[in-house]
Amino acid sequence: MLLSSTPIDLADFSKGITFSALDITYLKNKESELSESERKYQAIMESMQEPVYISSQEFIIEYMNPTMIKRTGRDATGERCFKVIHGFDEKCPWCHFEIIQKGDTNELDIVSAKDNRSFHISATPIAHADGSVSMLNVLRDTTKIKKIEAQLQHAQKMEAIGVLAGGIAHDFNNILSGIFGYSKLAEMHIAENPAKARGHIRQILKGAQRATGLVQQILTFSRQTEDEKYLMNISVVVKEALKLLRSSIPSTIEIRENVFSKSLVMADPTQIHQVIMNLCTNAYHAMRVGGGILTVELKGCDTREQDCPSDLNLPAGKYLNLKVSDTGMGMDEKTLAKAFDPYFTTKDVGEGTGLGLALVYGIVEDHGGHLKVESVVGKGSTFYLYFPIIDEKIAPVYQENDSVEIIAGGTERIMVVDDEVNILTSTQEFLKDYGYEVSAFSKSRDAFDAFKKDPSQFDLLITDLTMPKMTGFELSTGILKINSDFPIILCTGYSENYDEEKILKNGIKKYIQKPVDIQGLLPVIRKLLDSRTTGN
Questions:
Q1: Which residue has the higher pLDDT, 247 or 279?
Q2: Residue 345 buriedness (CB in 10 A; 0-12 / 13-18 / 19+)
Q3: Residue 64: its H or E element
Q4: Residue 408 included in any domain
Q5: Pairing state of beta strands 17-22 and 52-55?
Q6: b/e string for 131-161 if b means 16 or more Cβ within 10 A?
Q7: Residues 284, 192: one domain?
Q8: Are residues 321 and 303 located together in one domain of the fold?
Q9: Residue 373, phi-psi category: left (phi > 0), alpha (psi -120 to 50), beta (remainder)
Q10: Do residues 106 and 170 both lie within one domain?
Q11: What letter does residue 315 receive in the DSSP assignment?
């Protein structure tokens, strides 16, 4: 009870006193419940293994649980959350407080700039009596999970490469047979019929270009890279993947291609390539006995025009539909229900890991897409993939470029370094034919000594990356220490330790994948030499 007493007359207590009693049992019970609730809330927050913090609308930290304090190294209550938690000087680029203010939750995956660790963040609104809203953030460290996913994804890539190995070997042998044959013909006709020999040499060059393209496709497919999305035209990747598949799928399986859409989506070309290879390889396995038809289609659809499937509940908008279908054995309902489970496979032991469709599903989800599969036993399966179309009117970053600009040579002095004698000699002779003065070195240490002795005697360096004792990268950095503006072209066949970004950051002007098109190298050389002269 809440008891209170008040004199009727403050000057004369003898006139009496008014007593009142208010039953506050209900309020006391609510206070007790609230106190108990706060204790439970505090116990929950402090026992959580995930870092948790609450921030105000002004991004001021209002609470940190012990795990978050351990992560940051101190209790930073009252400080700016973006600075303390992630090391930014302004609001985090992924923060959408307006969503929280509306009373909605927000979940996203981020990489913290503070320690480069991956986190899944769940942000939830906390409404206050004065109308303000705070944001409760729970961080789940997904760094290990992301690494395991990347390893599984690469393992599945290697599985698919194993499936394609026979077809790749077959295609390479055909290319090499043509090169050997035309080489012999050119040798026979070079004296009495030079024009005919030139025709044979052109065929040799075409064969070499086909082999180069095949190697590049294999490297693209097997490359271990971080997820990097571009605004791109998926049809380019679909056609690349089908080129690689044609050489490995037997002639009993017909490939039908209906790829015309030029719509743009935000995607990682390597992962899209992998999705197509996985689905098509599965389709091939389903038709190994008796053959069949593999159909790959790419077209647009719009939910507002009701030409997208209603059962997927796609958000309103335009989508790019990638459809892969086969006429194979199909799947029953039990198999279909488990198709996307990791490690589930209907293949014999040693034929597959069961990761293919699980990774396809993960990649599609990561791209904000949707996936649907239909299958009938004895009639085949069809996979429908839907990716949101980006309406921005800009050219795709990822695109093919077949044009080669040929520019005249010059008289500058070029240093060529390569431990492969054939490459060294052919490059030297070619550049000399275009007027350049060329110094050739098979050892990078000799090249460095020559440059150090007199840097003024050279105008440009073309070097291989992988060489004994002193790599091309070490040679380049050594030369750049002497002359920081010296133009260098670094060439490589394949390297796990270096990528283009790392190489260019160190002052090297151009990074080129081998085999190098020597004639295509001419405009690159000319551009670097001219820019050095003009200062542009």
A1: 279
A2: middle
A3: strand 61-64
A4: no
A5: unpaired
A6: eeebbbbbbebbeeebeeeeebbeebbebbe
A7: yes
A8: yes
A9: beta
A10: no
A11: P
